[in-house]
Amino acid sequence: MISKNYFSNSIIRKTVSILPLVLFITILWNGCAKKLPDGKNISNNNYVLLNQDSTKVNFPHDYNGKILVATFIYTNCPDICPMTTHNMQLVQQQIKSEGIKGVQFAAISFDPQRDTPSILKEYASIRDIDLSNFNFLSGTKKNIASLIHEFDFLAIPGDTTTSGKNRIYFFTHTDKIFLIDQNGIIRNEYRGSHVNRDKLISDIKSLED
Amino acid sequence: MILLLSLFTIFNFHSQKAIVKNAWLRPAGKGMNSALYFDITNNSGKADTLFGVSSNTAKVIQIHESYMKNGMMGMREVKYVVVKPRSTFSFKEGGYHVMLILLKKTLKPGLKETFFLHIKHERDIKINAVVKKN
Questions:
Q1: Which residues of chain A have pLDDT under 50?
Q2: CB of B120 less than 8 A from some CB of A
Q3: Cβ–Cβ of A122/B97 closer than 8 Å?
Q4: What is the complex's ipTM, to 2 decimals?
Q5: Phi, psi of A182, deg, nearest 5
Q6: B131 CB near a chain A CB, below 8 Å?
Q7: B52–chain A Cβ distance below 8 A for any pair
Q8: CB spacing of A85 vs B134 below 8 angstroms
Q9: What are the chain B neighbours of A154 within 8 Å (beta carbons)?
C-alpha cells in the first residue's frame, strides 16, 4: 500500500527538480520578449525639415537620446493618414497618462509641395493634438524624397484627375508607424492605420533607459 | 380619403425602406479633403443601389474605397455600392467612404453638415453628419 505521503513527497521532489528549468525558461522568455531587434540606423544622414511652427528641425539628429514614434502622412488624405495620426495621438495620450518621459512623435509629410507648415498646423490644431512632443514636419521635395527612401517608405502620386476645374489627386502609400530608439535605430514597424497600440506602448517601454 | 391613405402609405413605405445611422465626418480645413462615414440599412426585400451623394459641403463628392495592395494603401472611386436586402452596408474607416474633395468650409469638431444620398429605388435620403475629433 503506497501512502499518501509518498505521492505528496514525489510531487514536491519533481516540482523542485524542474524549478530551475522553469526559472531559466522564464528568464529567457522575458529577455527575448523585451529585446526588440535592431533595424536600420537612420542617424547616418540628417535632413533639415520645418515643423508646424516653421521652426527648423534636424531630423533625426534633434531626436538623439529620445525615443521617437514617426510616421509619414499627407494632409489631404481623407481616410488612412487621419487614422494613423489618431493612433499616434492616442499613444501619445496614453504615454503621458502613464508618466513616461523622453518620447517624441513626428508625422512627416510626403506631400511637401502642398503641406506647408501652416497647413500642417491647421491639420494638428483641428484635431486638438498636443504639440508639446509632437511635430508635423515638411521639407523640400528632394529632402523628403531622400528621407522616405531611407525608411523604405513608398508614396506614389496617382489617380490625379480633374472634375470640372477641380484637380483631384491622391497618393498610394505605405501605411506604417516606425519606432526609433535613442540612437536613431529603427526597432520596430507597425501598420499605421491599424496599429496595436498596446504593443507599440509596450515596445516603447522596453526602450526606456 | 383612400387617395390620401395611399399617398401616406407610399410615403411611409419609401421613408422606411432605407435607414441611415451613425453618420460622421472627419475634421479638415477649407480646401482640403474629408470623408463621410455612415451605416445604411436596406429594410426592403430587394437589393438597392447607392449611386451618389450630394451636399454643399464640398466641391466634389465621390464614393471611394480604400484598399491595400502589396502592403500599400490606395483609394479608388466606385460608381455605386449595392446594399443587399435586409442588410446593412457600412461606410467605415479604412474601407468604403464618401470622399469630400475641396471642402467649401472648415469642418471643425461638433459641426453638423447635411447630405443627400441618392438611391435607385428610394427617394433621396437627407442625413445630418457630425464632425468628430479625429
A1: 1, 27-28, 30-33
A2: no
A3: no
A4: 0.86
A5: -65, -15
A6: no
A7: no
A8: yes
A9: 72
Residue B110 lies in a domain: yes
Q: Read off the pLDDT of residues B30-79 as tens digits, 9 standing for 90 and up.
A: 999 999 999 999 999 999 999 999 999 999 999 999 999 988 999 999 99
Identify the pLDDT of residue A169. 84
Give the pLDDT score at A48. 97
Q: Which residues contact A154 (CB under 8 A, 6 or more apart)?
A: A148, A172, A173, A174, B72
Q: Which residues of B touch A77 (CB under 8 A)?
A: 33
For residue B9, being part of any structural domain is answered with: no
Q: What pLDDT shows up at residue B13?
A: 44
> What CATH number corresponds to the domain at position B126?
2.60.40.1890
Average pLDDT over residues B85-91: 97
pLDDT at position B12: 44
Name the residue range of residue B87's domain.
18-131
Nearest CB among B33, B59, B71 relative to A174 is that of: B71
Number of domains in chain B: 1
B74 located within any domain = yes
CA dist B62 and A39 (Å) reads: 40
- Bin B85: left if φ > 0, else alpha if -120 < ψ < 50, else beta: beta
- According to DSSP, residue A196 is labeled -
A79 CA: distance to closest CA in chain B (Å): 6
How many residues appear in chain A? 209
Shortest CA distance from A164: residue in chain B? B60
B5 inside domain: no
3-class state of residue A176 by DSSP: strand
**Interface residue B19 vs chain A (CB under 8 A):** no
